[in-house]
Amino acid sequence: MLAVTHSSSAKSLPLAVEPEIRAVSFSTATIRSGRVAVAKIDCTGVRPQDLRCESERAGFVVEVLPDRARQGRFLIVAIRIHRQLGTPRSLCLLRFTAGSTSSLASLTV
After folding, report:
1. Which of 63, 74, 107, 108 is most buried, most CB within 10 Å of its CB?
2. If you average pLDDT over residues 8-34, what whole number do you get?
3. 3-state helix, strand, coil in the chain (%, to 5)
4. In angstroms, what CA-CA distances link 69 with 4, 42, 53, 60?
5. Sign of the C-alpha dihedral computed for residues 82, 92, 102 and 46 taken in this order
6. Is 89 within 8 Å of 108 (Cβ atoms)?
7. How many helices (H) and strands (E) does the chain have?
8. For residue 14, is pLDDT > 90?
9. What's the farthest any 2 CA atoms get from each other in the chain?
10. pLDDT, position 4
């Protein structure tokens, strides 16, 4: 028979950190349609697989590539933005989302 004991000195588990995206920066300010840009996201409590990105402007399609890396408080993500036919070269407004947090960033495509 097993005996179960409880200790009042047991350490409590840390509380889950609420996801927060503080800032997004890019490896470049301008890219050609279909090319890859690297986004450096300053965040806490965000798991790499939970990060989503979408265009807030019509005429652009965003693809988040599967390779993602964590460097301290930063999440490094590669994205590819496609400009649809008929869409002029312009500023693409991107929304990065993870859970209940999001942040806007822009890139000329």
Report:
1. 107
2. 81
3. 5, 55, 45
4. 42, 12, 16, 25
5. positive
6. yes
7. 0, 7
8. no
9. 75
10. 47
Q: Is the pLDDT of residue 46 over 60?
A: yes
Q: In whole angstroms, how far apart are CA 71 and each of 21, 41, 43, 104? A: 15, 10, 11, 21
Burial of 67 (0-12, 13-18, 19+ CB in 10 A): exposed
Structure tokens at 80: 């590819």
Please, are residues 51 and 41 in contact by the beta-carbon 8 Å criterion?
Answer: yes
Structure token digits, residue 72: 């301290």
Residues 52-103 have pLDDT tens digits of 999 999 999 999 999 899 999 999 999 999 999 999 999 999 999 999 999 9
- Distance of alpha carbon 43 from alpha carbon 24, whole angstroms: 9
Inter-residue contact 43 to 98 (CB < 8 Å): yes
